[in-house]
Amino acid sequence: xxxxxxxxxxxxxxxxxxKAQAAFAAGLLRGLNNDMEGVLSYFEKAYDxxxxxxxxxxxxARRRLQAGQIEKAIPILNKAAARPDAPGDIHSxxxxxxxxxxxxxxxxxxxxxxxxxxxxxxxxxxxxxRMLADRKRGAEAMTIxxxxxQDATNGPAYLLDFADLYLLAATTDASLTxxx
Length: 180
Fold this sequence. Notes:
The protein has helices spanning 2-32, 36-49, 54-66, 70-81, 88-100, 104-114, 122-134, 138-151, 156-171, 174-177. The chain contains ten helices and no strands.
């Protein structure tokens, strides 16, 4: 009964991994022939077979974005970001792609998800604060800055950048500039 079910599950997982590995290998072969579109096509198939492989999703999406193929990068990033175990890097890259598509509000939401999943690059915090300031959401930007400065283990240049961001956030919200 149960043992047979377990074996079927193992076989199914093995089959899924096998498909992913076969597609990945086919992509590598395409690479030997300098067929970058073929490489990416097979790597996308490999990711479809193994959606928990966030490194592969990031690599394919990054290559698509570098080639100016935003419309091909977004579905990969959306699929990866929809997983509850998606790392912050996936959400950050999705934010970048959405900005390139002119979807600022969706990009902001992606960045907000990214900062919830450490480690977070300082540039992601900076993007979030600037986007919030542009939307006159200074109080929210201040909260994020306070949290990010606690995580900061970077040098003086990082802290100076954040000092500028505090000023930016404060000047976009009248309630923050009128504090005693």
